[in-house]
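re: that chain from earlier
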Amino acid sequence: MIRILILNIIFFLFVVYNALGQRITETNSGNTFALINLERHQFKFNLLSPGFTYEFGIFKNVSASGGLVLGYATYEEGYAVGLTLHTRVRYYHNLNRRVSKDKNVSGNSGNYIGAARSVFFAPLRLATNIEGPSDFNLGFYGLTYGLQRTYENGFNFNAELGAGYYLGDGVLSGYGPLFNFNFGWVATKRKSRKPTFD
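^ sequence. v structure.
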């Protein structure tokens, strides 16, 4: 558990250092914290798995998100399915390259590396085969790689794959993968598909 926490802290510090150290060449070039390509606020309704997600830009290429969506956990001890509280810190690493290739970056359309946390609460669980008391909780802590695309009509998909530590509250803990896929609709107004340059 301590190793995972230390890795997450190192990852977060790397993201912050990298974001602050990059030379910004687009609009707002004098402001290191300007959200050039990222959306300041983005509220998404998930259509495939019922739920919602809120993502907000922290500073250049870094966002944080949280949401309540249907999730699936699988690790050494078994599986659990139910409504899950997701939180992420994402570093979008290819936004400038997408802009230079004249591709869409609206709605945070890019690829990212993220620090991930997902909590599977007992009252929201639909099914499980993990042995233990019926009121156990399960938390995932790890790293993910994902991609997100938002289209002009507002439809959005997000797919991520990762690995980390499943911390059991009342059950055994262990290591396992994470796969997350959401398809939904962005309810908030998005930036222009083509960012402007100085």
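The longest strand covers residues 110-128.
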